[in-house]
Amino acid sequence: MMKRKSLLLIVMMFALTSLSTINAQEKKKLIGDYLSISGWMNIQYDYESQLSNDAMTLDQINTFNVRRARLDFKGNISKNVEFRVQGDLAGTPKLVDGFVKVKLHKSFNIQAGQFKIPFTFENPQSPLTLEGIEYAQVISKLSGYSDMSGVKAYSGGRDVGLMIYGNFFKFERNGKEIPVLTYKLGMFNGNGMNNKDANLLKDIAGSIEVCPGVEGLMLAVSYYDGNYYLAGANENNANRDRLTFGGKYENGRLTVRSEYITGKTDMANNGQVYTLDSDGFYVAGGYWFDIAKDQRIRPVARYDFFRQDVHNPEKNSTYYMVGIDWWPYKNLRLLLNYTMKDKPGFDHMGNLWQAQLSVKF
Length: 361
What we know:
Layout: H1 2-34, E1 35-51, E2 58-78, E3 81-88, E4 94-105, E5 108-116, H2 137-142, E6 158-173, E7 176-188, E8 203-210, E9 217-229, E10 237-250, E11 254-269, E12 272-287, E13 289-292, E14 295-307, E15 316-329, E16 332-342, E17 350-360
Antiparallel strand pairs: 1-2, 1-17, 2-3, 3-4, 4-5, 5-6, 6-7, 7-8, 8-9, 9-10, 10-11, 11-12, 12-14, 13-14, 14-15, 15-16, 16-17
């Protein structure tokens, strides 16, 4: 009798252990089905020097910096519903992305929350794929990174709102379906990342991208119709409007991209409101070379021109950047940049040397 009880106890314990293992495996599988966790980090070094006009003073910056430290959670609640939550732990912890996508049809989908506004090619691009360490001047000043209006001190091109998006028509190349026309149209607070609206008006941003039948080639136009709180303006609502045209070509090795952006921003000076006309463009490119398995390197370059005030040439600035983008391992990147800066108000060129180590996990 005791032997039977002992045998029965052993069988029950084995069954319970097996059941617990199966449940754990099922839970792990379920989590793996709908949730992925990843992250990345940028460790940066900057050395910048600027000689004064009288050649008597040399201003310098020499610093290390943990530029970004991201944790990224992505998942699927169902076949048609996706979500993303991305936070940045560098400096003051903050929510970077937090949105839900409802995928209804290729031609019509909905996205709500905080995410990058649909404006320009470069704004939505991740720093991990960008040719340089910094975004182009005109992207920074007219696309929400460090906006001319001052509203978005640093918002990473993001805002809080609602967007519809989709694509129409398609053609096939090398077994891939390529959409001919892609659209995005959104309504946003217009007050930057992690901020509520500061007025009663909503900002509108939209883009149309067209692939003219050549794989890798894309032409685009995007528009931003915005308003922001400005003390002294009519009802404290000032205009912030942007328009951009651009094109890019990518074939897996060669990348060439260029955009022109123009903007009108209402500003205040001694109680008087005036409109500041700004514009700029950039041309950036690079070419990948394979060194070994999972190891790639590409030389990169960018011409970057910005006019803060189109009516005042003394406000023009031009940056010339060259660099090396090296991935010695699949999840490790070293980016080296040298930028010569022709800045307004200086007779001498400024020099910026930068190095950025990125790791993905």
